[in-house]
Amino acid sequence: MIRRIASSRLWLVALLLAPAPSLADAAGDYAAHCAACHGEHRLGGTGPALIPETLGRVKGIAEIIAQGRPLTQMAGFAEQLAPAQIEALEGFIKTPLDQTPHWTPEDIAASREMAADYRPAAAPVFDADPMNITLVVETGDHHVSVLDGDRLEVLDRFATPYAVHGGPKFSPDGRYVFIMSRDGWVQKYDIWSLREVGRIRAGLNSRNIAMSHDGRWLAVANSLPQTLTILSTETLEPVRVIEVAGRDGTPSRVSAVYQAPQRKSFILALKDAPEIWEIATDPDAGPFHDGYVHSHEKGMEEAFGAQQGLFARRRIPTDEPLDDFFFDPGYRNLIGTNREGTKGVVINLTTGARVAELPLPGMPHLGSGITWDRAGHKVMATPHLNEGVLSVIDMTDWTLVKQIRTDGPGFFLRSHETSDYVWADVFMGPNRDEMHVIDKQTLKIVRTLKPAPGRTAAHTEFTRDGRYALVSIWEEDGAVVVYDAKTLEEVKRLPMRKPSGKYNIWNKITFSDGTSH
């Protein structure tokens, strides 16, 4: 026993005296294990940038490195790296770069590349219904397939920027689509002509894009730099770059930007400030006051920090930062969730007042929420990322109708106004090959499909008329599986390279019931 204690003490002394891994060692570990996803210079790729400016208040970085990050492609490295190496790697990515990266309006403008041989077609160059086109994002080799929703055939397949993220956005007439990559590139593609129009780099690390109500402006939410870039949809030229900071001056990343067409505005989720921003796309908007207002009487205003007109900003204070948003059909109310994913709050966008708090633990994924009519009431449903549950909320009085138990955490819900069913994947859990089909009225699972046993099934999209439901087999040698939406029987299978999201033009531009926006 004495020898064993002595031996243990010697081992402990040796451990304490051993040199800690240096930043140089950590740089090598970063290059070996992190650079492929987060970029050689830590500025992001398929994964986010790993520098102090974008890490913000992220906690438990060492644990994330060791165990991975649930609900993402971030793997854990506890088996490859010793605890001291992980600690050193955390210190490395928290270390500021020698030069803080900047991406100025001049840099954005200089990055613009327009296709010299592009000529817009006077009419679609194909004979398919241009409103029943579905775009399939193939992340396996960074392409998008243009799918005819009637014949279920691929009309074109074109290369995209690296790591498409956040969902493509269509012009209101459905002719053009804008696609954003995680490293900030925005691509414009003419669906009628089946040709790329051009591209521009709006930021260095970006989250998503949103289209204005009139189709004139495209907003790009950036984590690096911490800005909102607004582009002309006609020319792709930058027209405004708005630096994002809380009322107290603290810079903030933009978690996401959303379109609010009825309000003629963009809505921003701020990751590092307890505020919601509304950016006007109406030239007659405002004035919006940032500070003290002595009088609102016409002709008697005395106020500080007023903005009005096109791209005027309105701040809506919140109790804490809200990361993920959902909107009621009229865009009167916003439903948001806090960073911890423990609850939902309802905020009236007209008054800025908090209307209700929703019992939504388990990290609800509101961005994938959908609505439908049930028993004379409009209801919404959202999956939970940390548990096998779908929460159904009555939007009349914001009460919980039911929590539907599923075979694991899912990410996407989809339906269609012509369908009796909600389609819910469970691809965040062990039963990732399943797709639940749920009756909208009884809220019961009526069938569980397995499009490819043992392989990941995710993200359903419907054709314009709701006749077909398209499901992704989210694998490198994957497929889009087409189902008859009424009989739930397979109709066709189209091979694809790791297909992820699918976006039907008509469903998106008409804000179809059952489609997330």
From TrEMBL:
Keywords: Heme, Iron, Metal-binding, Signal. PROSITE patterns: CYTC. Residues 1-26 form the signal peptide. InterPro entries: Cyt_c-like_dom (IPR009056), Cyt_c-like_dom_sf (IPR036909), Cyt_cd1_C_sf (IPR003143), Haem_d1_sf (IPR011048), Host-pathogen_enzymatic-act (IPR051200). It holds the Pfam family Cytochrom_D1. It comes from the Bacteria. One of its GO terms (molecular function) is heme binding. Residues 21-97 form the Cytochrome c domain. This is Cytochrome c, mono-and diheme variants.
